[in-house]
Design brief:
Blueprint: H1 2-22, H2 78-87
């Protein structure tokens, strides 16, 4: 048991000292240079494939379609007005 704890103590001391040794190495900064203009030539590229178009029926616009009016226009609504006066 004593030997295992001694080995653990030595191993942890070496492990803790490793980052201190690594700090002595000086690393140079990376220099990145970019071109001011990039040109890509696609003239030699051949694309092979099949052109697919949407399938289905086209719905054309119909002209002169008349729909039924869902709003009923009343010619006389005085009876409704007289009923609403009682509510005021």
């Amino acid at each position: 048991m004593l030997i295992k704890s001694l080995k653990l103590l030595v191993f942890s001391a070496l492990f803790a000292a490793a980052p201190a040794v690594a700090q002595d190495v000086v690393q140079e900064e990376d220099t990145v240079s970019y071109r001011k203009k990039t040109s890509i030539d696609f003239s030699d590229v051949n694309i092979s494939g099949e052109l697919t178009k949407p399938e289905g029926a086209y719905v054309g616009v119909r002209k002169n379609i008349k729909f039924k009016n869902f709003i009923k226009v009343r010619a006389n609504f005085r009876d409704k007005l007289s009923d609403s006066v009682d509510n005021i």
